[in-house]
Each structure stands twice: as structure tokens, then as C-alpha cells.
Amino acid sequence: NMAILSTQPASSTFQAGSITSTFSQIGSVKVAISKGNVANKRCDAYIVPQFQTYAAGGGVSRSVAINGGGSGINQYDDFARANGPLPLGKAYITESGGGNSKKLIHVSSVVEGGDPKNNFETVHYAIYNALKAAQSDASIEKIVVPVLGTGDFGTLTAEQSVKAMLSGVQRFADEGGRPLDFEIVVFEGSGNASHDLVIANR
Hints:
Elements: E1 22-26, E2 29-36, E3 43-50, H1 59-83, E4 91-95, E5 101-108, H2 116-135, E6 142-146, H3 158-174, E7 180-187
Parallel strand pairs: 2-7, 3-5, 3-6, 6-7
Antiparallel strand pairs: 1-2, 4-5
């Protein structure tokens, strides 16, 4: 059973045409939502969506690699090919090797097709497991993540993705997770109208 967001974070609107960093607090976790490119954000770790058996060659994975994190992507690829298929939602930390983040938290969350309910659960557990992995790494305090489950193989809208991710954050916080900064980034160049959304009043 999924832990669904049971409390409404303060001040969390996401408005069309004027998206700026919007902050809220879920337990010990400070949450921000902004618009931009994940690979341009400076942080301690990116959450990178990956396939269960190999590293994704496009999307966020490609952007991170182009911006200096290629060796971290390759480390996940080696791990997934040797140990896959990995369970959906599994988190695996590597050094980035370069770019604007120190580390990468790879999550096996990319599924070809599937109904939205299953994708929602996958994103929920991917975020929960990523935060649990980060908890044991003292060098990670700020995490940046794209809207998971909305890419070429995803079935979620941006709004559904945000809800799934925040429910994962809520679960982590409810279990006494340590303080972290968690920023959700909606891709700057997206023309998808679902990226202009309101997540208040969930």
C-alpha cells in the first residue's frame, strides 16, 4: 500500500507562464519546485531515471552525461547490465564524475508503457528509495530531480508525477528521515501544457 500525501504543504502553487522556485516543507524535507534544466542546477545529487537493465541514452541521463556526468552514467550502466533487471524503484548511488552535482542517485523507474497507476507507484517508491539512500550519505544535503514518469516511456502527467514524488517525500519524512533539500525541476523547453499546473489543494 502506498503512503499518499496526507498533509498539504504550505505555499505550493505552480502557475502557468511565471514559474519560479516555490517552497514548502514536508516534515524534515524542504521542497522546491522550479522550471529549468536539471543538469544546470548545482546540488549534491541528481536523481536520474534509468531502465532496469541499462542506462537511458536520452532525456535527463543524456543531459547529465553531456554536462560532465558521463562516468556516473556508465557506472550505473555497468551495474544494471551485471545485476539487472533491477527492481522497479531501486536507487543506486554513484559519483557523478563531473558536472554540477557531486553524485547521481539512479532510480530504475523507466518503464515501457504500463498503466498510470503502476507508474505512479514506481515514481513514489523511486523517490522514497532515493531519499533513503541519500540519508546514509552525509555528503548529500541538496537533491534535484526531474518530473519522473513523464518522458517518452512514461504515462504520467506532470501533475501526477509531482503528486507521486511528494507522496514519496511524505513517506520518508513520516519515517523520521533527516533534513534534506529536495528540488523538483520541470524542463524549461517543454511545450507540454500539463507542465503548467497547480499542485495546491491536492
